[in-house]
Design a protein that fits this description.
This protein has four helices and 50 strands. Strands 1, 3, 8, 9, 11, 12 and 14 form a seven-stranded mixed beta sheet that branches. Strands 16, 18, 23, 24, 26, 27 and 29 form a seven-stranded mixed beta sheet that branches. The longest helix has 19 residues. Helix 3 links the parallel strand 31 and strand 32. It is globular. The protein is mainly β. The N and C termini lie far apart (124 Å).
Length: 683
């Protein structure tokens, strides 16, 4: 009996002890990130900062491949082989894992990228989609559809978002891919920071997607891309490109003339509800033998967007263009569209060249609007915004209005206080932390403006793009001009998304396109001498004072960059001294003169290695002349490829004949790369 009681007591004690023990915590399962080839769900984001991640690459043709460089996925068919620029034929794919496009009304792919140079066609870099691709197989084993949006060249190496509409694939599992192609004579270079597949309606970027019917006024600026226009190569290797913030076409390459036929073609536009209509184009034309035969204008009522021109019927539109005297001499031509009132038409600019003569045209913008050609244009109705202003220079929209008018293809003036700049390296602004709201600032590509000078809420702001090499960037950016913080800025541009937020883009960036509090723009002068270096070194000469036997040159014409370039680095830095020398410039009939040119410097050498020199007694040999160094208004930072405009006062040389030279020196420790263009001396 006692034994039974004892056993009962022991059992109770054990139960109490067990119940007092602390239970082990329940550890939730660690979420598993899908790997390469695994099925992805939206939002599906892949950064290429360090690796390809859930993407793979497929090399179909050529020796060049996608690589991770500059914290991006990079592809190019161009190789710099000891200073010799070579091009190779390639076909290479950057391919995602499969992703479900389900449970949404709209879907899009957003590619953050930068691209430069000229490819073999307007379809050399394209976005592809497949519903039957098997991961890691060859692209040829699947059916692919090419999306219509294009990877246009960007503003230098400034990254931008390109959005691709995936609405047609809702309810499916698809693979997305970037397909790259280059030839043995041409290649672009593209760098991709990230690709996202996410919910949302794709933005067409200025007037909707190319091919959509447009209403008047239909404005297309070519500051950053072709927008709602398409380009078609009918003959020759040369193509329309975005350069100098314009749509540019030339058949003069590498010092030779080439035969070409190339078209710049609009989306369809309704020419309705008006008594008169016209096309207005702002342009520069130079070096044509028969300008109005080589550049012609056409209209079609049956053209299908993005098809070859010969698939449609075209009628010539009468126009008279005039040659420009220099690359700052902008012209405007107006063409009557009265014959097409009540119709939907496509308009096009057709370029022709031959092996004897090839001119160059730069088109800043094309507008189809109400008005009688050559007459007074009725004031165009700009939709009223939710705030104040009417969008004109005299009565600009405030920031609140500009936010409300995003994505409606509106080009207008907007005014606000400069309150910050997007943080350098940011591709998409997702919070206030992506903006620097007080000095020091680290970006010169943009400023943020607001109606309240003390605002620090990005959703109440507009991000203003500052185009490279233009006065708008030079005079406004906070990196070089921190005192601009808090100043009032009025600027003309297109109201469309930038960094994923309300933006103002596509400004031409000239002195007449912005008003900055306290800044007085200089009065344009009369051009005395100019050379763009767009087609070669022109009348400039080169003298190598010190050139080692390992090098054949320092200064050279860089056709792919449309500039003159100096470098003494070929696998290593060499000791050199090389001069790029202007012809004699006559200042005898002027009282004042100013030198202006654009320059970019990377891999900067020690101070004093690069200099601008002037002489009044140069006679063909730099070593026997007397030279004085010019004091430039500004020099590049020396660690990037961004061009800036520099000036020098030449008034002390008025009444004389001068020679101006770019002097380049280097040593075995440092050899900079110096790029220069748009050299102008004006009164």
């Amino acid at each position: 009996m006692r034994k039974s009681y004892l056993l009962i007591l022991i059992g109770v004690a054990l139960a109490v002890i067990t119940s007092c023990k602390k239970k082990d915590p329940v550890v939730p399962p660690v979420p598993v990130t899908p790997g390469a080839g695994d099925l992805q769900t939206m939002p599906y984001t892949q950064s290429f900062a360090t690796e390809f991640g859930t993407y793979i690459t497929k090399n179909v043709l050529g020796d060049q491949v996608w690589t991770i460089d500059y914290s991006s996925a990079v592809m190019s068919g161009h190789v710099n082989n000891s200073g010799s620029h070579e091009y190779y034929e390639n076909e290479d794919w950057l391919i995602s894992s499969p992703v479900q496009i389900t449970g949404v009304q709209h879907a899009k792919a957003v590619v953050n990228y930068a691209a430069q140079y000229q490819g073999p066609s307007d379809a050399d870099v394209v976005m592809m989609v497949s519903s039957d691709y098997t991961f890691n197989s060859e692209p040829s084993t699947a059916t692919w559809n090419q999306l219509s949006e294009k990877f246009n060249n960007t503003d230098g190496w400034t990254f931008t978002d390109k959005e691709f509409n995936l609405d047609a694939y809702i309810g499916q599992t698809v693979t997305v891919a970037v397909k790259f192609y280059s030839s043995a004579t041409k290649s672009r270079t593209i760098e991709i920071k990230s690709i996202k597949v996410q919910e949302g309606q794709a933005s067409g970027g200025g007037g909707g997607q190319g091919g959509e019917v447009q209403n008047m006024p239909y404005v297309q600026s070519f500051a950053n891309d072709f927008g709602t226009y398409t380009t078609k190569d009918v003959l020759g290797d040369e193509s329309w490109v975005i350069d100098y913030s314009t749509a540019k076409m030339t058949g003069y390459v590498g010092g030779e003339n080439h035969a070409n036929e190339d078209w710049l073609i609009s989306s369809p536009v309704n020419v309705t509800g008006v008594e008169h209509a016209k096309l207005v184009m702002e342009y520069i034309c130079r070096y044509f033998s028969s300008l109005n035969e080589d550049i012609t204008f056409w209209a079609s009522e049956d053209y299908v967007f993005d098809e070859a021109p010969n698939t449609a019927t075209w009628s010539n539109i009468s126009a008279t263009l005039t040659e420009s005297s220099n690359w700052n001499d902008w012209k405007t031509v107006e063409l009557s569209l009265d014959a097409y009132i009540g119709k939907t038409i496509t308009v096009a600019v057709k370029y022709m060249s031959n092996t004897t003569k090839a001119g160059t045209i730069e088109v800043k913008s094309i507008t189809v609007q109400e008005g009688e050609a050559g007459g007074v244009t009725p004031p165009g109705p700009i939709p009223p915004g939710p705030g104040t202003g009417s969008g004109t220079a005299d009565d600009p929209y405030n920031v609140s209005s500009g936010i409300g008018l995003q994505g409606q293809d509106i080009v207008a003036w907007v005014q606000g206080y400069i309150v910050g700049a997007v943080r350098n390296g940011t591709s998409t602004v997702t919070s206030n932390d992506d903006v620097i709201w007080s000095a020091p600032f680290d970006s010169y590509t943009n400023v943020v403006i607001a109606d309240d000078a003390n605002c620090q809420e990005i959703t109440s702001c507009i991000i203003v793009n500052l185009p490279s090499g233009k006065p708008l960037r030079a005079q406004v950016n906070l990196y070089d001009n921190p005192d601009n913080y808090g100043k009032q800025l009025s600027v003309l541009g297109k109201l469309r998304t930038y960094f994923g937020q309300a933006g103002l883009r596509d400004s031409n960036g000239t002195e007449s396109d912005f008003v900055l509090e306290g800044y007085v723009p200089p009065t344009p002068g009369t051009t005395i001498f100019s050379e763009t270096f767009a087609n070669g070194q022109g009348l400039f000469t080169i003298q190598d004072v010190l050139l080692p036997e390992e090098l054949t040159y320092v200064w050279s014409y860089a056709s792919q960059y449309s500039c003159m370039k100096a470098s003494a680095y070929v696998g290593q830095a060499y000791v050199t001294e090389s001069w790029l020398i202007s012809p004699a410039i006559d200042l005898s009939d002027v009282n004042t003169a100013t030198l202006k040119f654009d320059q970019a410097v990377n891999y900067a050498s020690p101070q004093g290695a690069l200099s601008m020199m002037i002489s009044t007694d140069y006679a063909g040999d730099v070593t026997t002349a007397n030279w004085t160094e010019l004091n430039l208004s500004q020099w590049p930072a020396g660690n990037n490829w961004s061009f800036m405009n520099s000036t020098a006062d030449l008034t002390n040389y008025a009444g004389q004949t001068v020679t101006i030279a770019f002097k380049y020196t280097s040593n075995t420790s440092a050899a900079a790369t110096w790029e220069v263009k748009n050299f102008v001396v004006e009164e």
